[in-house]
Amino acid sequence: MVKRRLSTARIAIVALAVAAAVAAGCGGGGGGSTSAPGPGPQPSVSAVPAVQIVLFAKFVGKINDPTFGTVQGFTQQAYSQVLGLTPGQQIMLTNGDSVTHTFNVYSAYPTPPPPNGTLDTTPSGTTTLDAGFRSGPILPGASVGPLTVTNTLGNLYIACAFHFGSNGMQDGVVVSVNATPGPQASAPAGGGSPPPCKGPYC
What we know:
Strand order of the largest sheet: 4-1-6-9-8
Structural class: mainly beta
Helix content: under 10%
Radius of gyration: 15 Å
Number of strands: 11
CATH topology of one domain: Immunoglobulin-like
CATH class of one domain: Mainly Beta
CATH superfamily of one domain: Cupredoxins -  blue copper proteins
Largest sheet: 5 strands, mixed
Number of helices: 2
Shape: globular
């Protein structure tokens, strides 16, 4: 796992529409909400920031990052960006799209990318966002969480099981103290067609 420090001059990019919360992987059928176990009172779901997931670059744009490559579909703001999360932070994954997604987390992108999205679509059954976490299918408009960000500092790689191979729906997360999300993609130009979605969940 590559470790990387964030600075105001160079902020890592973590992608796919994280609009004030960490949202959603790729997939079909299922979804819902889970609660993170732990002592003490848990924050209300509405108070937990979310990462939003939106597939098509037409809506959220895409941006190239030297560490994570082309990232698109995940964001903590409005447009695709590398995510910046703090160890122990709680987040929600929210699917802001009209198709089902998953949020699969790896220590590196799977290689080669599977054709037509053949990554594991089953949920990992865990509530810690770390390598090996899988949300399972998140239906349009649904959320998963709250999840607790790992205490291990460094980089994580995100892919949607349904759209990674077919549409390059991928992103990165920098886990660091006082982490902030990376620069956002430029607002997509008006018009144009979204990339073709090739799979059973389009």
